[in-house]
Write a structure and sequence with these properties.
71% of the residues lie in helices and 0% in strands. The chain has 441 residues and is mainly α. The termini are far apart.
Amino acid sequence: MTTFVISTTATHRMLFPRLIHWQAEGLRLYRQPIAWWALAALLLVLLASATVAGLDARTWRQAKAQDRTAYADKLHAQQLRLQASPAPSAASATATYQLGRSDLGLTRMPVEAGLALGVQRLQVLPSRIKASLDTRHVDSRDPGPLRNPLLTDTGLPGLPAMVALLLPLVALVLCAGLLQEEREQGRLGLLRVQSRYGIGPILLAALGWRLLALWMVAVAATLPALLLDPGATAAVALQWAGALGAFCALWVALGGILSVLPVSGATCILAALGLWLALTFAVPAGLVLLAQKNAPLPSRLSAVVTLRDAQHQAEDNEQALAEAWYDEHPHIPAQQPAVWPASFVVRVLDQDETLQPLVEQFRQSRALQAKQVSAWSWLSPGLALVLYGERLAGTDVDSHMRYQQQVDAFEQRWRAFLVPRVMSKQGMRAEELRQLPRFEE
């Protein structure tokens, strides 16, 4: 019996010599406490981040569902208000104007199935824009220096950012210095003697097990984010798992390259830390600075001057603007002199028309900055992973640009429907509320 076992083992080693390396390296990784501690810490931190992201995504979708109920309630309240003054009058025109400024024109940015992977971006993006008879460009300005919301930090890192920050550290701890450790412990020569195929298969087996362990931990820790999001799909989970696999493979490969360098173990670890700092922080910061230099935003001073000039010009010429509007709409009886709210509506329309080139300049500069960063994001694996998560979530640059265009089109329909009813002093009848434009995602 013993002879048979020895014979079978010998035959197994002859037929599958490289499989022995995988078995040995798997057992070696299994017996390393530091590996277990590092993977456990990564699992717990990512699991907490995934839970928060999943709950935030669920909250966003629930709020979107509640918007429909709130819209119906507000529409009913407006209907009762219009029914109280059924005859056309100045009061009904004022009620129509107030309706045009109400939250009935509020929109919400459409998102994709992977919302949990980019929900943090909604904290800084204008994701709830209201179509109104007021100007959005004057009343919605943020104080402080002008910033690009597409490149602004979101406070606490989102789930992809946490993966990009922590997983490379664990990968480098597990992979960097593998051969240096063997050399410093005096075991490298013994490995060369025992392996008939050289050190390469042994190193490949060691890196392979670490890649598998990292990927399994990353998938298991981040999957709850998609499970908690009621809008997530299996396709998004597979795409995210594939992205995690590529990200893990890259950092494991970098750790393997560092481990074969002819340096000491301490030097290898320092080099790994420097590489992590450069690719995770320095490169993204450099890309953002370069993008801001190539596509600078207009200065706040020039924007304020243009805005003030537009306001003063509209205020000084409100009667002329009203006359011009009535001339362009001869089917509506002219009301001269124009009084509030008709006089204010034409001022808003003129201000927005004057400010439109400046608004487009801001949008184009922001989009160019973000697109340039995205085009060079492959220089930073972490940045590329974060941007990929935002694309799966529908909170990336292109998605937000489409949302802004949708809001602009919706506001044009909104004003085309309501402005004539304000300018004619006829107001809107209660039964016409059914024709009120709705935001189309």
